[in-house]
Amino acid sequence: MPLSFSIVINTLNRATLLAKTLDSLRWLKYRGRFEVIVVNGPSTDHSQDVIDAWLPAIRAARCEVANLSVSRNIGICMARGDIVAFIDDDAIPEPEWLEQLAQAYDDPAVGAAGGLVFDQTGYAYQYEYSSATRLANANWRLTRPADHLAYPGAFEFPYLQGTNTSFRRSALLEVGGFDEEIEYYLDETELCCRLVDAGYLIRQLPNAYVHHKFAPSNIRNEHKITRYRYPVIKNRLYFGLKHGRAYVPLADILADNRRFAEEQWQEVESHIAAGRLPASERAALAGQVKSAWERAMARGLSGTREYITPDKQRAWPGAFLAFDKVIDAVAPKALVLVARRLSPADETLARSLAAQGHIVCLITESPDCDRVDFEDGVWMHRITAPASVRPAEAIETGVAQDAWNWSASVRTELQRIAPHRRIDAVQASPGAADTVAWPDGEWPLVSSIDTTLHTE
C-alpha cells in the first residue's frame, strides 16, 4: 500500500499566494492518499478567509505566535500520514512531487527526504544539495547528494530546504520535532542534525521539484534584503552552542559567530552605501546583534529545549482527512503544446486537457526572459528565442533564421522538460516552423493546421 502523506503549509500574511499553493495541490499525481493541513500564524491579512474557503477539504489550525518551528510542530501533531511533507505558502510543487518523495522511503532507516527547488523564474535552482557543519557553516555549492554524510556524530551532515522537505512522522515524534527556540532560520537544518544523530538517513533527491515563488516577509523585503537579522544571528550562535561544543572549543564557536556578525555589518553597510537601505539600519542592527547574542548564550548553554510533548500531541486531535480535490485521469498523459503567438484558443485547449487530469505544458514566446509559471492547471513555459546557428541544410532549404531560432529554442525547452517526465505527445504547428530544428521521431508529434474555418 502506498505511503500516506500529510502536507503541511505554515502561513503568515500571504493570503493570495497561499490560495495559489492550495490550488496547485489539486493537480498532484499520487497513487496514495494525502491530506492537507494549514497552520495560520497571527496573520493580519485575509489568510483566514482563504483557509475557510477550503474547508472542509483541508484541516486547519492557528498558531498564536510568529514562530515557524512552533507552527510546524502544530502541523506535526495534527498530521496522521506516514510522511509529513512541508511546502512554503509561496511555493508550487510539480505533479510528481509526492510520488518521487515516496520512492525515497524504501528503507525504514530513511527519516527525511527532499527534492530540488527552483527560484521564482522556474529555471535557476534556488537549492540543489547542501551540507552543514555543527557550527552551522553551510556548503550550498554541492553538485551531488551528500547522503553519505548522514551518520550519527558526523561533524558535517546533509540537510534539506524547508520549502521542499518531508519526514517520516514516527521519526519526527521520536526526536521531538522542531526546536521551538528557532523561530526562523536553521530550523530544518537543526532537525536534520538530530535525525542523523538518532541514526536516520537523509535523502537528497535529484527530482521531486518545487517552484519557490519568493514573497517578502517580516524578515526580508521585496528585494530579498534581510531587514530583521536578529533570528539569523541568534539562531546561528544557538545552533553552534547546542551542537558544536563536543567538537570545537567554546572560544572557537564564539569567534566564528563574531566573524558571522561582522559579515552582517558589512552587508548592511554595502546596502546603505548603495541606497538600498536607510542609514537607520545601523542602529537597528546594533540592537539586534546585542539581543541575539544575549538570548543565544542563555538558551544555548542552558540545556533546556522546547520540543513536541505528549501534551502538545493531545492538544491537536483529529483523524486523517483525504484531500478530495484531486483532479486525476485514469491514465494521465504528459502533453506539451507549442504556440509561439499565444491565442485564447491555445489557452482554452491547454486548460481543457489539464482539467481532464493530464499534465500539460504550454510553450510560448516570452517578451523578456525565460520563466515557468503554473496557471489554471497548466505549466506555462515562456521562453526567449536567441540566435542559433543554422546548419547548411536549413539554409539551402530556405528556413528563415527567425524560424530556426524559435524551433531550436523549443527543442531545448523540450529537452529540459524531458528529465522531469516522459513526454507522451507534443502538439506543434508545421506552418509556424515550430519543428524545423527537431530530428525526426524525437518526440511523438501531433501537428495542427489552423485556417479561418477549421483547426485540424
UniProtKB/TrEMBL annotation:
Domain of life, source organism: Bacteria
Coiled-coil region(s): none
Glycosyltransferase 2-like domain mapped to chain residues: 6-174
Protein's recorded name: Glycosyltransferase family 2 protein
Organism of derivation: Massilia suwonensis
